[in-house]
Amino acid sequence: RIEPCRIIKVPEIVDSRGSLSAIEGGEALGFDFKRVYYLYNMPLGTVRGAHAHRNLQQLLLAMHGSFDVVVEDGSSKATFHLDNPTYGLYIGPMVWRNLVNFSPEAVGLVLASEHYDEADYYRHYDDFLRDARSLP
Ligand code: T46
Q1: Is 6 in the pocket of ligand 1 (CB under 6 A)?
Q2: What is the largest CA-CA distance in the chain?
Q3: I need a labelling partner for 122 at 20 to 30 A (CA). Which of 61, 71, 92, 93 fits?
Q4: Could you tell me the fold of the domain covering 5-133?
């Protein structure tokens, strides 16, 4: 199992009008978020991600449809299937991720701990692997 990744249950408030789920930054989530972005209109067979972050923490959710997130920390690999807006995948720093198997019309929501910063990305797998494997 990949240590910095885990599924987080989001509370669901259900009544006769439908469901409402709220995510608050801070203690419950484990980080405060400064940025929200979403992924949509993915053509069949799309692969997104293929990078890691030095410091960023994120929560990924499938708002509609489903997709798989393949995560790797330099020594082990795991796949999480996201298909429910009340279960989010937390991804911590130093995790390579690939997002694959998007269902038609899937919508992914991401809460991110930091503003967008290209310098935080590992875009080359070999650089990531070298640094991930030298972590204590
Ligand atoms: C991640 C996965 C799940 C911005 O201008 N602002 C932003 O906040 C983001 C996330 C991206 N961009 C620009 C950078 C690129 O020119 O949007 C373009 C596409 O970004 P990228 O190729 O990084 O998209 P994904 O879907 O491969 O990766 C994104 C996040 O970058 C990444 O942190 O974990 O979603």
Answers
A1: no
A2: 53
A3: 61
A4: Jelly Rolls (2.60.120)
